Amino acid sequence: MPPPLTAIHTGFLADEAETLAFGEQLAKRIADPSVIYLSGELGAGKTTFSRGFLRGRGHNGSVKSPTYTIVEPYEGLPDMPVFHLDLYRLGSADELAYLGLEDYLWREAVLLIEWPERALSHLPLPTFHIELIREREGRSITLQGHDPAALRERVI
Q1: 19, 35, 60: which is closest to 155 by C-alpha?
Q2: 21-to-17, 24, 49, 51 alpha-carbon distances in Å
Q3: Is 19 contained in some domain?
Q4: What per-residue confidence (pLDDT) applies to 72?
Q5: Which of 36, 59, 62, 66 could form a disulfide with 72 if both were Cys (CB 3.0 to 4.6 A apart)?
Q6: Is 65 strand, coil or helix?
Q7: Which CATH number covers residue 15?
Q8: How high is the pLDDT of residue 1?
Q9: Distance (Å, rounded) from C-alpha 95 to C-alpha 4?
Q10: Looking at the 3D structure of the chain, how many domains does it have?
Q11: Is residue 23 domain-resident?
């Protein structure tokens, strides 16, 4: 019997290709809608994971980091939209209201949120919280699930 999703699952992603593949796998196995928090220092692989995730949701174009735009919408996907948010540049959580991000946060969608710790009090609870930590040439990954119905099968 697999452990409950509230348990922490850990793994190691040896390189960028494995990080992309993990993102793609998770994208195909989650239930919709979902909120995914992505934590880790600069360069830990949050945007790389997001590229793989969007590929797994059917996006074939480029994926850029939303560090300056704060949000990148991907609305033409087969199942439902994905909104990729990067909150790194927020000075305070209150800035979310001024940026109009509430429109994205409460839609039926999948939300990929980098740097969620910058605005936890203003964000919906996560379905998953993924932490990436650079280690040697790759990164260690910790995935904590918060919704028992959200994951169709174990991915790590």
Answers
A1: 19
A2: 6, 5, 8, 9
A3: yes
A4: 92
A5: 66
A6: coil
A7: 3.40.50.300
A8: 30
A9: 36
A10: 1
A11: yes
Strands 71-74, 82-86: pairing kind: antiparallel
Q: Per-residue pLDDT tens for 118-155?
A: 988 888 888 899 999 999 889 999 998 865 555 545 55
CB 26 within 8 A of CB 129: no
Place of tokens 């190691």: 12
Instruction: Tell how far CA 2 is from the center of its chain.
Output: 23
Query: How do residues 8-64 score in pLDDT, each as one tens digit?
Result: 778 999 999 999 999 999 999 887 889 999 999 998 999 999 999 999 999 999 898
Predicted TM-score (pTM) of the model is: 0.86
Domain that holds residue 86: 9-145
- Is 49 a domain residue? yes
Token pair belonging to 126: 């996560």
Q: Residue 104: inside a domain, yes or no?
A: yes
